[in-house]
Structure formats: C-alpha cells, structure tokens
Amino acid sequence: MTAATALVLAYCYFNPDHAFIALLIYISTIIFFSLILTAANSIYRNNQDSLHSSDFVSIVENLNTEMMVWSDDFSYVYLNKKLRELLGITQNEYDQKEMIIKVFGTKNIEGRVINKINENKSYESRFKAKNGVVISIAWSTSLVKKRKNNSIYLSTGFNLTELKKMRVNLASANDFFNSSMELAEIGVIMSSDRKNYRASSELARMLGLKSGSISANQFRALIHPNDRILFDGAINSNDTNKVKSIELRIKSADGNFRWYSYRYKSIDGTDHTLPLFGGAVIDITKEHEKDILIERLAYIDEVTDIANRNKLVDSGQEIFECCQLLNYSYWIIVLDIDRFHIINDTCGYTNGNYVLRNFAHILYKFVTPGGLAARISGDNFALILRDYGDDDLPSSTVRSIQEELSKLAVDELSSISLSCSAGYSKMPDYGSSFLDVLEHAEFALKSGSNSKGSICAYEPSMHDSIIGNTELEKALAVAIDNNELQLFYQPKISLDTGKIMGVEALIRWIKPDGTIVKPDTFVPIAESSHLIGKISEFVLNESCRQNKLWQKMGYPNIVMSINFTSSDFYQADLKEKVFEALVKSGLEAQWLEVELTETLALSDIDFAVSQMNKLRELGVKLAMDDFGTGYSSLSYLQILPITLLKLDRSFITDIEHDNIAYEIVSAVIRIAKSKKIETIAEGIENKTQEEILRMAGCDYAQGFLYGKPMPPEKLQEFFEVNMGI
Ligand code: C2E
Ligand code: MG
Ligand code: MG
C-alpha cells in the first residue's frame, strides 16, 4: 500500500497535467478495496465469533474423542485433532463437504444424521482410517447455533471399533463355549434369585426344554419325586463359594428319567454384581448303570432286594441334613418280625428268606416320595416316611403293614401267625444325626418288644433309662461270665397236708459286695438283648441239677418250677433243650414245671399251644403264672394244656376284706377243678389268707408266710426244720 502510494505520487510529480485524475482514481480504488476488505472481514468475523475465535473450539480440538463442528451448508467443517489423526489429514487440507460425507458415510446428511438429533439418537457410521482399518463410530450430534443461512452442529464420536471387535470375540467365545458344552454334554443352569433360571442350550437339549428360561418349580417338577428333597436342599443352601454335588433323576427329552450329577455353587453378590446360583448338569446314566452292580453290592440287600443298612445310613443322613435346612421332618420306623427265629429254626432258611422278601415287598409299598425302605439286619427293617403333621402316621402305617403281613401264608408255618413290632422316632427333632434318630427308634422298638405287635414311639424321656439300660446290660454280661447269678428257691405248700410239695426257682444277681439285685430289674433288660438265652439256659440246667441233687440227698421229691420268658418259650428247639437238661441232670420230667404268664401264652396262642403240647409230651408240668392279671379269660383254660393255675398275688393281698376278690378266686378255683387243673395261691402272707383259700378249695399256697425265696442251703434247713424232715 505504501509502495502504491509512492508510485502514484511520483507519477503526479512527473505528469502534473494528469495528477488530479490519477489521485482521484487511486483514492477511489483504495476506498473500493477497503469496503471489500471490511465486508470480507465482517463475514470472517461473524464466523470466527462462534467458532475459531471461541474457547469452545480449542477445547474440542484437544479432546480425546473424535469430534466435528460443521455447518449444514458445509461452508464450515472443522475436525478435531483426534479425528484428523485417525483420517491422516491436517487442518485445512481437506474438502469440507467430501470429508463430512466420508466421516458420516452418507451423502444424505440431512436425512440420516440431522434427523437423529430430533429423535435424540446417535448415528453410527463406518469409514476407512488412514491405515485402511474400518472404523465404526457412533455420532451424537447436537445443534450448536441456528443461523439464518445455516446451522452449526457439534458431532461427538464414540469409537466402537474395539468394542465391536470384542463383541465379535465374545459371540464367538460364547459359541465356542456352547459347542464345548454340547460336545462334553454338560448343561448349565444359573439363577440370580433362585426362582428363575437360565438353562444353557445344551441343558435345554438334554431335558427337551422349549426355552432357556425355566422357573425353579418347573425344574423341580422334572426331578424324580424321591430326589426332590435333594434339589430343595441345594437351592436353599446358603453355603457360598463351595462346590457341592448331588445326583438326581431328571425327566429328560425322551420322557424317561435319567441320572444326572448336579454340581452347584452359590456365589454372593457384590455392590457391582448379582448373586449367582447354579452349576453344571451332567448326564451320568451310563456311569450309573455301570455303578449299579457295584452299588448293588454296597447298597442293596441280597435277600430282599431292597436297600441295606449302608444305604439307609447314607440316604438317612442326607435326608436328615435336608430336614435341618428346610424345616421338614421325617419319621424313621424300625420294624422287627416277631419271633422270626422260630420260622428260621422250624421251617428252614428258605422259608425264612421267603418271609423276609415278602416283608420287604410289603414295606416297599408304603414308601412315599423321598422315603426309603431298608433291611437293617436279620429280621430288622426300617422305613423312612415324610412327616406331614400327622402324628398317627407311623402307627397307622405299621398297623397296615401288620395287616398285610398277617395275610402272608407260609404252608409250613400254619401254626404261626406272622406279625411285627415297631419303634419309631422323628428326625430331625430327636437327635443330632441320622444314626442318633435310628438308634432312638431301635430303643423304642426294644422297649415295646415284650409283646407281639407292639408299636412304640420314642420319647426323649426314655433317654435316661436307655443310658441306664445300656450300662446295666454291659454289667449284666460281665456278671453272667463271673457266675454272679444264682437261683433262690421259694417253697410251695400243700394246703391239704401243710407239707412242701414244690419250690419256685427265682433268679438273683448277687454282686461281689453282696448286694442282691431282683429279677424285675434285670430280666427285662436281658430279654431285650441276647443275654436272656444264657440266663434261661442257666436256670433250666441249674434248677434240674439242684432238684435231682435234693432227691439224691434224700429229701422228698418235690416239683421244681421255673419261669420262662417269651423268647425262651417260643424257641423252636424248646422241647430239645428241656429234654437235654432233664437227661443231663437225670431228673424225671414230672418233677419239673414251667410257669408261663397269660400274656406270654396268649400273644400267639396257636404257637403257644403247640409249644406247650411238646413240653407236655415230655411229661413236664405247666403252670399258668400270675393268673388274673392278663386277659383273664377262663375260656383259655379250655384251650391251654396247663396243669396248674397260679392265682395272682393281687387277688390274695386283700382277700380277707375284699368280697369281690374272694368271689372271683372261689369261682376260678371251681372252674379250674372242673377242668382238672390244680390251683395255687401266690403271696400268702398270713394265716387268714391261708384259711380263706383252703376253704375256697385251693390246693397249694406260696408266700412269705411259709418262706421267702432263699438260697439252696437255706431251703435244706427249711426242709428239715419247718417240715420236720
Ligand atoms: P413270679 O414268677 O410271679 O414270682 C413270684 C414273685 O413274687 C417273686 O418275686 C417272689 O419273691 C414274690 N413273692 C412270693 N411270695 C410273696 C409274698 O408273700 N409277698 C410278696 N410281696 N411277694 C411275694 P421275685 O423273685 O422278685 O420275682 C419277680 C418276677 O421275676 C417273677 O414273678 C418272675 O416273673 C420273674 N423271674 C424270677 N426269676 C426268674 C427266672 O429265673 N427267669 C425268668 N424268666 N423270670 C424270673
Ligand atoms: Mg413264677
Ligand atoms: Mg407269679
């Protein structure tokens, strides 16, 4: 400009004629260009105001995300550094419209990009970067300024390229995972709330599920009813981060139950993650089939084909733990076939096994889902039943079992009616493990087993006596080995002659310190264990030996009475044992008498009669002990081949004052006489009682009036002093 002015001034100096026109043209030209420059500057400034000149662009320039500022007439397009670097271009080096079309990947900017702004959505574009890589960017565009001629927009990019790659990888990883699961035949089931589950495609295929979503109830419905309790235990387990495993039968795609191993784990949720529960489901049917043989050996009872004790204990413990977790309860019933040994002894093992098998079959019919029938040992069985709140369930079930058992016909056993006794307990109420509860049921069985067909519930109060009994049982076993048992003898007197006609052998346990233990304390314990056999053998042999000895010593011949328990009396070889004792001692059968209680004889009347007849065949006498305390039916006198009736002490105690007792006693004596059965009164303690009984026609008397039970030496004195021998 300065140079131009200098030139014009020089021209005017050398051409003064044209100086005025030259100056005029020069000044006009300056004014013209100034106007253009001002206008251009004004346009330029207008743009600069909102864009380059503002802090806004400098911020955008350096942001670490792809950004564009552009006008919809493409008169202004600005790409920030991050986007320029991606495209490999520099500022001002690009065609603005073309660059916008490239970056947005469309010519229809108005329709595809700007429309999204109104919908408040992002627009995703793909284009090639300078290195040839296809870039995916989600553009979020907003209107920065609306002007008369155009509008300015800001597009912020979100580069999806890496994410997309990851998604592709994830999808293929998922496919790979699913295929691996399919190849390995492993189903997966997961839930975050334990109510709604996601089943993997392989599990859906295995179980024939229509969709991958399945509720806990739907899944439970596919599980075999007997195994549902295990599943309930699993989904309610709070034991986190531990892998657990159960084996279940689940209805599969083909409609059949197959065995599956379900290995599950529960994972706690965190602030950022949901809790997870689930695991892998693996079809183990084939392994199970292979294991069946091994399992049969380990878990199935050979004779009856039902579960054995091992299985009972293993499954029982699983059920016990589920009960604790789920607030369920189950009954454990222990059953014993009454006098089963008789069947084995008299009819042989084939018939014995026949009864065991059929009994197992009967029990099996009463098993409900989740329960179990098992043979514990010998003729001991167990039944596990779910408790639904009916406290009568065990006894009513046992009664039904007894009814079915009584119908079981064994030709060789026509004289024996089959029955069973039971004891039961509840879990998890009474006990800290399944074995505890089983033991309680067994104790309940023992405590009621004196009578045939007994059904006895375990009571926690039994516990003390149970402990006491066990201790006593151990001590008694030692006492037997140490010969601490001894027979005492109580005289029986003829009311006619006043002379001794017999003695009753009554057992005593004489401890080393001299304490005498009465039979009422230890005989019932011995009876509920194997010890009674030893005791009875001793009583039989010792009483015969003693009686024969007295005979040899020259004392008058007397009848030796011995007491028999139920288990002694119902032995199949009873006759042989008694015969052996007689032979061994040399005592004639007529000097031996066996006392049986009514309850004992009537618990199995047909068999009792056959046993009694066998003893009668030997010539042994039979007395009905404690008559009047049991069923008290005189009609039995007709059936039972007894030779003596012992009127119970309870009738005698108050006979002097109690008319009714007197009437009963006189009537019984009369009827017995008519049947040719002799009578003896127990518990005579005074002369009045003796007199009343003599008047009533009673044949013999026994009681403290004549003598208490005493050791043999004392009885010899009694012979000599009291009877004047
Ligand atoms: P039991 O067979 O009825 O025996 C009679 C019981 O009455 C005996 O009790 C005897 O001591 C008692 N007694 C006899 N006279 C009187 C009396 O005038 N007054 C009173 N208050 N009691 C009298 P013990 O010896 O304690 O026997 C109790 C029961 O134990 C027996 O009742 C019998 O059932 C059983 N027992 C005794 N010895 C044996 C045995 O060797 N084997 C078996 N299986 N049981 C036995
Ligand atoms: Mg007796
Ligand atoms: Mg008696």
Can you describe what's shown?
This protein is of the alpha+beta class and about 725 residues long. It folds into 4 domains: about 1-165, Beta-Lactamase (2-Layer Sandwich), CATH 3.30.450.20; about 185-290, PAS domain (Beta-Lactamase), CATH 3.30.450.20; about 305-460, Reverse transcriptase/Diguanylate cyclase domain (Alpha-Beta Plaits), CATH 3.30.70.270; about 485-725, TIM Barrel. It is about 45% helix and about 20% strand. It contains 27 helices and 25 strands. The strands form 4 sheets. Strands 17-18-20-21-22-23-24-25 form an 8-stranded mixed beta barrel, surrounded by 5 helices. α10 crosses α12 (about 310-325), α17 packs across α18 (about 530-550) and α18 runs parallel beside α20. The termini are far apart. The structure holds ligand C2E and magnesium ion (2 copies). Ligand C2E binds near residues 625, 626 and 685.
